[in-house]
Design brief:
Length: 151
């Protein structure tokens, strides 16, 4: 299978999300509708360190880790569904194992584990400096197939 890479300018256009809320710099090793790896270089001056437990224990919020998994998933789905279709997130379960509180490389490993009749389920894991930090399971539906009015 062909592997693809999407970089930040293309991701901004696909996801319709810009900095600082774009939580991945690139998505590599994309196997269309199967898997991909999101990558973000976390720097010491990240905006979330300045406003999340800034006095005693600055860290990356778990919600931003979930967002990184969701953004990577949509990038993996994009190459099959060009132009990108809107998906509705119907399930989001996550586990947090450790904190991201320094500089380093965050890798978001995404696998599409199920796709049937407009329902997509993915599994994500985040590694920070090669240590597993969090994981999640996400379910999406294609509103066009279910005739939902999503704009």
């Amino acid at each position: 299978m062909k592997k693809n890479t999407l970089y930040k300018p293309v991701l901004k256009n696909i996801l319709k999300i810009s900095d600082p809320f774009l939580m991945i710099d690139k998505v590599t090793n994309i196997v269309i509708f199967k898997e991909g790896i999101g990558v973000k270089k976390v720097k010491k001056n990240e905006w979330f360190y300045k406003c999340h437990f800034f006095n005693n224990d600055p860290m990356m919020p778990g919600t931003l880790q979930i967002e990184a998994m969701l953004q990577t998933t949509i990038a993996v789905l994009f190459l099959k569904n060009s132009p990108v279709e809107k998906y509705l997130i119907t399930k989001c379960e996550s586990n947090f194992i450790s904190k991201i509180r320094s500089t380093g490389v965050m890798k978001v490993v995404i696998k599409i584990i199920k796709e049937k009749s407009g329902i997509i389920e993915s599994r994500g894991e985040i590694f920070f400096n090669k240590k597993k930090i969090s994981n999640g399971i996400f379910k999406f539906i294609n509103p066009k197939i279910f005739k939902l009015n999503v704009k």
